[in-house]
Every structure is written in structure tokens, then in C-alpha cells.
Design goal:
Largest sheet: 4 strands, mixed
Strand content: 5-15%
Distance between the termini: 11 Å
Shape: globular
Radius of gyration: 18 Å
Structural class: alpha+beta
Mean pLDDT: 78
Helix content: 40-55%
Oligomer: single chain
Amino acid sequence: MSGRLPVRALRRHAAEAVDALVASEPYDKLVDAVASGPSWTDLAGPIPVAWAWSLPVIREQANLLEYLVHHEDVRRAAPDWEPRPLPVEVQTAVWKRLPTLTRMTMRAVPLGVGLSWPSHDELIAGRGRREGATVRITGQPVELALFAFGRGAVARVDYEGSRSDLTILKGARIGL
């Protein structure tokens, strides 16, 4: 989170505060705190957006992709990793969040990209929302989410498109 703060001094201060908290609390207590999210009493002052995070339905909607991708970052850093089978309900939940995700993470992609879930559906990202897809990426929703978060190097997806378009795609800035 601190990496997204606009001022270097604020990022440094936030990182130091997080480091101090992590050093002072047992691991299981930190995990429980992240899982439960902020409570209404933790949120002082008129910050409607922060208050929304205390609602479980909002937290779940926002955090599914974030936690999933970071979990996969850890798994895929290990040698000989393999994708894990996930229930169709999880894949479907990920798929439903991809349109919103790709509007943020693929906004700088200068061409249309079709993200395709075999035998299900396709969504168009990048400039493709207006101009159509010139590149198609096919895979399971979790793999497509990894690609859309900028983890193309570890996402198990298939690419289809002209060599020049694929070169443009691989050089594009993808991620938050």
C-alpha cells in the first residue's frame, strides 16, 4: 500500500510504521487483523471510503483479486510450481472482477486485447473496448488475472496475434 502514496517521505513513513507494527505483533494476530479488516470503531472521522472497507461484502469484492495474486506470487516463486485447481465458483468470481480490473491495469495498452476463458466468454481490454481486439489471450480466469496484474511471465496463458502486436503487448505497461 505504501508504494502507492504520492510523496516519497509519506511512503517512507508508512513503510516504517508497517515495519514497526509487524515487529510488535505476533504473526497470527496480524493475519487475523488483515482477514477481519477495519472495524467501524477503528475508523475515526468522516472518511466514507474507509468506512466502506469495514463492510465484509466490499472487502471481499476488492480483496479477492489482490489476495489471490499475492498468494500466487508466493506459490510461483517456488521451483517446480504448478497451477492449483480451483473450484469453478472461484474462477467465476475472478472472471466477474476482470472487467473492472483490466480498466485500471491495462489502460496504457495501446491495442485491443481479448481475454478469453475457453468455453465461457471473452472480454475486451486496452484500446479494444473501442477498436476491437487485435491480440487474444486465452486461459483460466486466475491466469488471466495474473496477466492483467502484470504477471505475464508466470501466467499460464496462450497468446494469439501478429508478431508486431504481440511485441507491442509485451512491451506495454500492465499493472497498477
